[in-house]
Amino acid sequence: MTETVVDTKTRILDAAEKLFADKGFYATSLRDITAEADVNLAAVNYHFQTKDSLIDAVIGRRIAPVNRLRLEMLAAAGPHPSVEQIVAAFVAPLLERGISPMLPMMGRALASPDLFLFRIFKKHLAAVADQFGKAFETALPSLSSAERMWRLLFMAGSMAHVLSWSHVVGEMTEGVCDPTDREDVTARLVRFVAAGFRATEPPRSAQPADAVRLGAA
Amino acid sequence: MTETVVDTKTRILDAAEKLFADKGFYATSLRDITAEADVNLAAVNYHFQTKDSLIDAVIGRRIAPVNRLRLEMLAAAGPHPSVEQIVAAFVAPLLERGISPMLPMMGRALASPDLFLFRIFKKHLAAVADQFGKAFETALPSLSSAERMWRLLFMAGSMAHVLSWSHVVGEMTEGVCDPTDREDVTARLVRFVAAGFRATEPPRSAQPADAVRLGAA
DNA sequence: GTCTATAGGTTGATAGAC
DNA sequence: GTCTATCAACCTATAGAC
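Output (structure tokens, whole complex):
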């Protein structure tokens, strides 16, 4: 035991994290949070000013360490990482090694297509996206940049879906899938996504360029 | 032009579909909807009783035709469809052939891990999930059922992410990816997911069973 | 079927005592 | 830093005239 007493600010962050995951960012009221955290309503405004800035703080405190670990894992894979190593470096720091209480909340955030949340992620993800983009580029040099970017989006989607729906995966599959075995899920996801990245892209000429499209009709 | 006049009920459904996509189900108020639809507030309660049942109606009117088309495409692929044909039969009816205004809203619904939405999808998806599960089973007989189900979830996640984030894909990729070319996106997604499904699963013995895990330490 | 009016409750945020 | 009290705005849902 390191500390059993937690200060008000942290209690608010913890409670908000839990409730945001359960009910969503907008559906959770400040009163829900203060009740869960057992603090006064005004404390939220004192520590975080507005609800939006509380949301930013809840996401921000978790995303930074994850991204740091991502870059560490990518660097540890050496100058010529395999596709599997790149995918694992992106996925495992959150899915396998991320602390449990943040996972459903991160899933919610990744899966909510709100501009406000998008800005938060964009701010924190800039360095990571750059490094991983380059890594994929050297590992799969034959891939067009459009195809590479689409596949990054597909990867993010699979990961987000696992995070956000894992609480019903058990019921959904009648116990066949166990989302609590995080190493297992991570291994399966890495296998799937890496294979997707390795898929051969049809030659450019097979897909009609603008000229062809305009020339027709 | 077939009909320029639309009845109140449809106007409410159309407006709700648009606003649910933009702001989310909970963040959209009935007043937002009646303002957008240019109808009276009480009309919503007259036609749909409650907000929850309106959400159900908005999703329900779109999901049925999509699922019908999915089963048609799967049947049209014959008794021994390829993995690509199965994936395309699941993905294309929504992503490529679904009518445009429903796409962002469907993305939002698929990506919101709320039990209420899950129940709606479960109700409508039962027959489809069964057929597609069987199709994958015969196309990829060596896959364990757990791995097959996880991959179905990964597939759904990639598709949902494309639907829900396509409005920022342009900005995100600085114009390299064009989400408005729906045939192109669909082809890329089918390629990616099919390759993921074809990935070889490591033999059961390579992954420690419970006995091994318990036996250790 | 469509309207006005309103009930009854919740929300985010703040002012000001301690 | 933490509290009580409160504001103004907003919400869903309904009752009842037309």
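Residues 8, 39-43, 46-47 of chain B lie near DNA strand C (CB under 10 Å from a C1').
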